[in-house]
Structure formats: structure tokens, C-alpha cells
Amino acid sequence: MRRVIFTLFIFLFFAASASAQYLPNFQFGIKAGGNYSNFPGSANYSTKGDPGFQTGVYTRFGGLGLEFQPELYLQKSVVTISDPGEAGGINKSYFTTFNLPLLIGYKIGNDNLGGRIMTGPVLIFRLQNDQQFIDGQRLNYTDQNYGWQVGGGIDFHDLSIDIRYEAGLNKIGFGYGATENQSSKMNMISLSISYSLYSDYSLD
Predict the structure, then answer these.
(1) Is pTM, for the whole model, over 0.85?
(2) Which one of 10, 50, 101, 194 is least enclosed by Cβ atoms within 10 Å?
(3) Per DSSP, what are the bridge partners of residue 63?
(4) Residue 170 burial (CB count, 10 A)
């Protein structure tokens, strides 16, 4: 896992360096925000999401309105799974992950005021998954997971506000003991604020 995280940092560093030299628009900054998880339920169980958070860095580069936006951020999310049957089991799970979205977007406006839309895959690397049980069902949250993000944002010079929806692409199995008899996908909505530490815009 440490090698994976180190490789991702190196990727972002060289991508930022190359884009600053060869592409007309480049931006690097920090971001932070909140999220709300959704783990779809069924007749056999119910779920409830709790607020989480994310914090990390981002880059944007491109030209003529088109942008490539890789990000790397630490994310904390929470979901509670309840068994409405006689057992009445509850599992409250806390997920800590490193997320790498690779987004393609389109921007209208300029660096002082503009709007953006974006979409793309996100790679999710598990750092920790703490599960608190009251006779609850264990989740098999794997080391690597995948999702797809879609959203939009508004830019006010160095400040940006984004809202996104993330759909889980891989199934997460769960069940009692070692037997996994059900599965679902984790979805999420997030709201974040970004601040540009450096930008080089040659196109208005």
C-alpha cells in the first residue's frame, strides 16, 4: 500500500510539472469538504449514511475550455447497516481511503469567474476499515475499489466550489461470519471547496 501511495504522489508531481511547461492552462491547489455515503438496502436490511470528510490536493490543466483534473485526497466515510429481523444486528463501518479521481471537464468563463462540469473514474485504495458490531453483518471492503464521478463547480478566481455524485462500480459483499450471501455498492455525494495555490492561465 505504501508503494501505491508513493507512486500516486510521483504521478501527480510529474503530471503537474509537464503540464506547467507544455499546456496553456495549469492550476494546482488544495481541497477539503464533506461527503454523505449511501449503501443501498433491501428487504433484508436497512442502511443509514453519516457525514464524512475529505482533504487533499488537485491539479487542472488543458486549454480551450477542456480540462484534465487528477486529484489525490484522504477520505473518511461512515455507513450503518441494520438488520430489521429478530437478530437486530447493527454494523457501523468507518472507511478511511486514498482516492484518485481522473476527471475530464469543460469550463466556461475565465479564471476570475466560471462554471465547470466534470466526469471520470475514481480509484479507491483502502487504508483502514473499522467495523463496530452489535451482532451485525461484516462487510468485505477490499483493498482496491472503483467508482465513477460526475458533477459541476463554480470558480471565483482562486476559490472553487464543487458538488459531485460518485457511483460505486464494484460490489461489496457482506454477511454473517465467513458467509457472504449479499452484496451492494457504495455511492456517495460530496461537497468540497478548493483553493488554488498556483495557476498559470495564458487563455482568458
Answers:
(1) no
(2) 10
(3) 66
(4) 13
